[in-house]
Amino acid sequence: MALRNQPSTIKANRTNDPSDDINVLLLGQTGVGKSTFINGLANYLCNDTLEEAANDKMQAVIPSAFSFTHDETFEEKVINIGLIDEHEKLNENGQSCTQQCRSFVFPVGEKNLRIIDAPGIGDTRGLDQDNKNFHEILTFISQYEHLNGICILLKPNEERLTILFRFCVNELLRHLHESAKENIIFVFTNARSTFFKPGATSKILRALLDEHKQKQNIEVPFTRDNTFLLDNEPFRYLALRKNGIQLNNDQTLSYRKSWEHTVKEYSNLIRHIVTRPLHAVSNTLSLNEAEQLIRKLTRPIAETAKLIQENLQLAKQHKENVLKK
To answer: Where are the domains of the chain?
Structure first.
């Protein structure tokens, strides 16, 4: 999948017409792996094999960290990747927490692939923060005329339909225009744990999509054609190697197989994205502007209705008083 002219170098095609860019928006629950998705892609674009990547400069476009426990001593070590900046924070588990939207541009053939990383849904700071995050997302994508793909990232091992999972999926779908259904793509992260299958999540996701169809009369497809199963554990393997940690042959072989599968899935994903009709960003923006307007009008309308009822009551009382005289 490597598309470079020089090792370890990712440079966008600067002379390209922006209307030809492949724009992809990443959405998902907080901690699902959007940032790792981007870091993994950067390394897959630069190297064809895991061993090449291990001997090359590691691409860490978004900072992150994770804990590694030694097999023999059980000693735990924190592996830091990249440099922390104002756009990213690390939670207590070392996972990257995107604070605001950012775009990352990669050359794919003669075109530019723009990946838009967005804050996660289901923020621990509450519903108000989620609303702010959605506003941030809509404001950011307003600078682009179109989206080629809208990737909803999910973990494959959701056993139960929790309130948080329902909220995240419903909120994502609610903010998208009906025409975006052809651009929605489901990406399962950490899929090696379920043998690169959607796992238990597929059942509850299908139930939510059926519910969405009944309520909104919009059928969002969930098929093998628009579903991709990735595992970016090889990115962690590279981080371990760069920190001087050697793994045994069995572990390396497992990561190598994961690398090969994920590279193929990334290639299939990009090929699928470029076949999608362009989704006009203005459609989704108009939908959300209309929703905000309706919300703003709700209170004035309610107050007006209340005043009308009060005036009718006063008029009735006045009429009764006049008739008594």
So the answer is: 18-298
